[in-house]
Amino acid sequence: MSIEDRNQDLYAAVTIAEDCRSGRADPVDVVRRALENIAERDGEIGAFVAVRTDRALAEAAALADRSGSESLPLYGVPIAVKDNLPVAGEPMLAGSSAGSNVPSGADHEVVARLRAAGAVVVGLTAMPELGAWGVTDRPGVITRNPWNLERTAGGSSGGSAAAVAAGFVPVAQGNDGLGSIRSPAACCGLVGIKPGFGLVPAGIGGNDWYGMAENGPLATTVADAALVLSVMADQPELATIGHPGKLKIGLAVGSPSPIVRVDRHWTAAARTAGGVFASAGHLVQTTVLPYPKNPVGEIARWTASTALDARDLDRTRLQKRSRGHVRLGKAATRLGLVKSAQSDRLDTNLREFFAEFDVVLTPMLAQSPPKAEAFSEKSWLSNMVASIRYAPYAALWNVSGYPAASVPIGIHPVTGTPLAVQIAAAPGREAVILALAAQLEQRRPWARLAPDC
């Protein structure tokens, strides 16, 4: 079966909502099928930490009986939510045994918007402790990549990415503080979008990781990602993907750091995407991005954010790697290493860059996903090296607050896991990113699920 035929055979969020609105499908049946799939197959993937079987079915039934449901944009769509946003009636543990088992009293605003649009939350997805790491596991359970079970699904939204790539749900919510949507999307062959600052309500942890963290969608198609983003942002117009026009695109394949080596297949994937856009009529020009020369600012924000998120927790119950991260974060805060001047300077440099280019393309990852191992039992240094080595391209856009997306393009010939390109642009240009991603999808369609799913 061709990729095009396989894509048409799959049940996308856009299709589910249309079928439920028209009466061709019943939300209860759709949700039941998702729950049965999770029950049958998540044992080998480890995408979920909690499955809301009875509550999800009851909510789907109530939705089907409610008048006006036929107008809802996500009517009947099963969705997964990452375990660091409050979902009413469910504990929010943020991947940690130090978290509280007390059920949340109300939905996070993003969850409330998804539900108001007709989506049904079927479960909460796995994440590394406090979202601090680029691989997802917890004691006794490793979240695996559906494309290659020997590889990680990425992090920190690894459970959400694995749930979508395995076909358990068509779309999922994630959040991204240093690539935590885009990196697992790249690992698992999905479209993952980190919106720009302020488009979607954040409310993640203690202070949204000093403004770096944003909520966004993971999906198998650009149309699904755009639809979910439009609901999260309460901007319905984002669901309509337009033509990007003729753009000047910067192609920046260089490593963000002199200590990071980029796998040639990831570089080639970005160049291939550049060639696709050139053939579509865009002007593509090789360039260099203004990456920070000193990584201290990024690392200080990373550790200080975790320290703030752990402020009210019993730190003796944190994993050893996280305790070390928290200690460093407290020191970074005490020494004043997190400064607004860092993001201000980066914003100035990027505004100069985007005065010349409309968008920029980079590889999404420098290496394919690390092996699926118990990183929660490894040292702080091992976790830092693993995260930085394979996923260094994302942080620039978190510190700056600019929008960026991961889009699949090809398969790595050694690991059998997807390749992906990152598309980034100036603030407020999410619609342009979506339009370019849709062009890439049309010209280089990808398999929407892992081969055995």
From TrEMBL:
Give EC number(s), comma-separated.
3.5.1.4
Query: Which transformation does this protein catalyse, written as a reaction?
Result: a monocarboxylic acid amide + H2O = a monocarboxylate + NH4(+)
Q: Which SUPFAM superfamilies match?
A: Amidase signature (AS) enzymes
Q: Which residues form the Amidase domain?
A: 29-434
Q: Which InterPro entries match?
A: Amidase, Amidase_dom, AS_sf
**Pfam family of the protein (one):** Amidase
Which family is this sequence assigned to? Belongs to the amidase family.
- PANTHER family on file: GLUTAMYL-TRNA(GLN) AMIDOTRANSFERASE SUBUNIT A, MITOCHONDRIAL, TRANSAMIDASE
What protein name is recorded for this chain? Answer: amidase
